Amino acid sequence: MSMSYAAKEFQTSELDTVANVISLTPTDPLNTFAEMWKHKFGKFFPIFILVMGVLAPLTSGVVSSAAVAFVYRASSLQMQPLYALIWGVGQTFLAACIGFTRILATL
C-alpha cells in the first residue's frame, strides 16, 4: 500500500467533528433517550446511567463516611470540624480521580 493511496482514503473532509459524533448539532436533535425505548435492551440504559452516575457514588460516599465515623467512634476520638472538612475533600477528590480513570478507560 503506497502512501498516496492511504492519503486518498483518509481525507479530513470526510471526518466528523466532535459535535457531530456526539450528536449535538443543530440539524440533528438530541433524541437518543426517546429512540432507546424502541430497542430491546436500550430501554434499560437510562436506568443504568442513573444507577452508575448517581446511586453508585452516593452509596460509596455513605459507606466510606460511615467507615471513617466508625473508626473515630470506636477510638473515642472527637472529630474536629477541620478534620471533617479534610476527610470530605479527600473523599471527593478520590471519587473524582476514580471517575476520571473510568472515563479514560472508555476512550
TrEMBL record:
Subcellular localization(s) per the UniProt record: Membrane
Keywords: Membrane, Transmembrane, Transmembrane helix
Bilayer topology term: Multi-pass membrane protein
Record's GO cellular component terms: membrane
Entry's transmembrane regions: 44-72, 84-105
InterPro entries: TMEM170A/B/YPR153W-like (IPR019334)
Keyword Methyltransferase: no
Family assignment from sequence similarity: Belongs to the TMEM170 family.
The name this protein goes by in its record: Uncharacterized protein
Species for this entry: Diploptera punctata (Pacific beetle cockroach)
